[in-house]
Structures are given as structure tokens and as C-alpha cells.
Amino acid sequence: KLIAELEGRTVTVRGQPVTLRELGNASVVSVPMSFKQEFINVLADPNIALLLGLGAMLGLGIELYHPGGILPGVFGAICLILSLVAGQVLPISYGGLALLALGAALFVVELFMPAFGIWGAAGVVCFVLGSIYLVDSDMIWAVGDFGVNEALVGSIAGVVGGLLLLVSFLAIRAQRRRVTTGKEGLVGKSALTKTAFARREPSGEMRGRVEVMGELWHARFADGGEAPEVGERLTVKALEAGMTLVVTRNASGDEQ
Prior knowledge:
The chain folds into 2 domains: 131 residues, no CATH class; 67 residues, CATH 2.40.50.140. It is 46% helix and 17% strand. Strand 7 and strand 8 form a beta hairpin. Helix 3 runs antiparallel to helix 4, helix 5 runs antiparallel to helix 6 and helix 6 packs antiparallel against helix 7. The protein is rod-shaped.
């Protein structure tokens, strides 16, 4: 088909115009591509170029989030260079490239400033739109639908979106989880009475010692009525200044 379209065209050979005629009788000689040409031909696939860009974003993002890994940074740098080489061959749309860059920036923001997936969701939208408009097929010699495969874009967007949902779920669950360390971690714990509580004058407070999580603490009994007996289970209500626990019978604490 190409030879038929060349019929009658004028080309310049050694500075002289030459009209191509009777090409139907011409013999076709196949010239194999060199290794370099084959390599560039692979990079010229829009899907490969997109995957290289994602690899660069992933590798460099991991290196920024966990500095010192070396391997992710090297992998990301190699993918970045190869994606730039592919960009020299492909008719890249600057609008699509800008959307991909914005999506990558939003993913980084989500890593360092978690917003329960809001930044990440916006990044996924930018990624999908940028992938669709990444290659301008009207500017290239290829025929038909030349661009990033929609199935590939959907698969990557689905995986990234699923990971963002998982991270958001874990972040929300971690925020709702009760603190189990430090001062706040003692509140609600079960306290075992180790010494008899006695009323101290002139304050009239009942004080004694209790065991919480294997440690002995000075404690003040906050309820009125009879003093706790040795061996009785109480519940830590608060921690006062001076490392004194406030205990009560009002709730059942965690079993130790």
C-alpha cells in the first residue's frame, strides 16, 4: 500500500528532483532494525511510556518517603530517563503530561499530608484524564487509534484507588482506636487492690496502693462508701499529678 501511494511523488536524490514512476515492478528489500532501533521502537509504545512514568513516580516517591533505600530511587531514576527518551519519539500532549504531573504531586501530598484519600482521589482523576490525553494521535504517522490502552488505564486506576481506600480505612481505624500507651493508656484499665485503703486527714481521701499492668501505683479512691478490700478489682478513672491513680468501682476495667 505504501508503494502504491508513492507512485508519482517527487523526491530529492543527491540534490536533483526525481519522480517515482512504475513502482509496481520495484523489488522490496527488507532492512532489519538495529538493536537501538528496536529498543526505541519498544519505548515508542504509549503504554510502555506510561508504565515507565508510573515506575518513575513510584520509585522516586518511595525514596522521598523512606530516604536511604537507594534501590527505589535508582529504579525511579532509570524509569524517568527512559520515559523522557520515549517522550522524544512520541507526540506527547503537554496538557496530558501536566495532568499526570499534577496527579503525581497529589499522590505525594497524600503521603505527607493524609486527608482520608481526598488528595489521592483527585490524583486518580488527574491520572485517568492525563493518560487519555497523553498522546496526540493527530500529530503522528500512525493510523487508527494510537494511544494509551483504556483497559490499562482502568486497571491502574482501580489498583491505585483500592490502595488509597485501604490506606484511608487503616488511618480512620487507627484514629478511632483507644490509646494503649502513656498516661491515656492507663485510663479504663483494671486495677487490683494490693493494700488496704485508709482515710487520710485532713482531706478525708481514701488512699492505698493498686497494681496495674504488673506495676504498683499509689491510688486515690474516688467513690464514697466503704473502702476497697485487698484483692478487689477497681477501674482507673484518671491520673493525677504526682503519679497517683484515681480509681473507682463505677465501671469494669480490662482484665489483666
